[in-house]
Amino acid sequence: MPTPTEDEGLAETPAVVAPAQDSRAREKRERLLLVAAFAAVYLIWGSTYLAIVVGLQTLPPLVISACRHSTAGLVFYPLLRWKTGIRPTPAQWKTAAITGVLLLLMGNGAVCLSEQSVPSGVAALLVAMVSFWMVLLDWLRPGGSKPVPRVVASLLLGFGGLVLLVGPAHLGGSERVNPFGAGILVVGSFAWACGSIYSKHNDLPSSPMLGVAMQSLFGGAALWTAALLSGEVREFHPAAVSLRSWLAVAYLVVFGSGIGFTAYVYLLKKSTAARVGTYAFVNPVVALFLGWLGAGEGVTLRTGLAAAVILTAVLLVITAPHKSTAEAAGTLATPGEA
Fold first, then answer.
1. How far is the C-alpha of 299 from the C-alpha of 293, rounded, in Å?
2. pLDDT score of 328 more than 50
3. 61-74, pLDDT tens digit by residue?
4. What's the predicted TM-score (pTM) here?
């Protein structure tokens, strides 16, 4: 017959085991969420470049982006506000406003504008520069981490790939990428990196989807304002828009914003800037393939060489050792888009 002390020990054992099991289950769930979020950002965002091409067939570029993000904000914000019960603070609204303009107006808007003159796969390749901007900005911000020499070398290599894309003319018998369209993408990727770093280090609601909806409200309003000032709204006639273009916009709303952008914001909070930037390595491959398959975009010698240079540089960035391995690992235990 067990003594009182033994009885107490037996009674405590399940209470000790249960929290440990809950902790393991929670860690497993978080790992699965990280994997799913990376998959969404890698694959879904790679496909949005082709969706923009389809939308541009009968829609102006800024109107595409404005329809996408304003719809996402107006649909998702009231639903998520009701479901989560979260009341965003003034500081969170400020973060949403700043990041909405940087990510959606200047970042996504630039992609839509550039794809009028730059093939979708090449656009994704140029957006890959966002990973370099993110490393530089994360270094220059107060308290940021200085990149190791290998990362600095990869940055130079990546910008060399950009130079290869836009000049010299007639390299390998193929024309260079439109310099104006490429310039828009460079500015847009820089704005996207600024918004990403700002989002990572400033307050947003604990619900990533609610934060996305708030950003979409501000970004959508800014895009409609830009479309109005540029004259696109006057040229926009809904009756003249094809079903294919409307379906493309719907895809961008549901998958690009609803799923992909939410996954991106989640990863910004759960992973390091360099690892989040790895999506820029996969997106161009997906976009190049889909552009060739769905839009008949050829892959020239120049594009192939530039892709090899830029993606090698991105690979060097994401595999570079961290100054603080423990800090990087700790972040993982607890990610430009089109």
1. 11
2. no
3. 999 999 999 999 99
4. 0.76
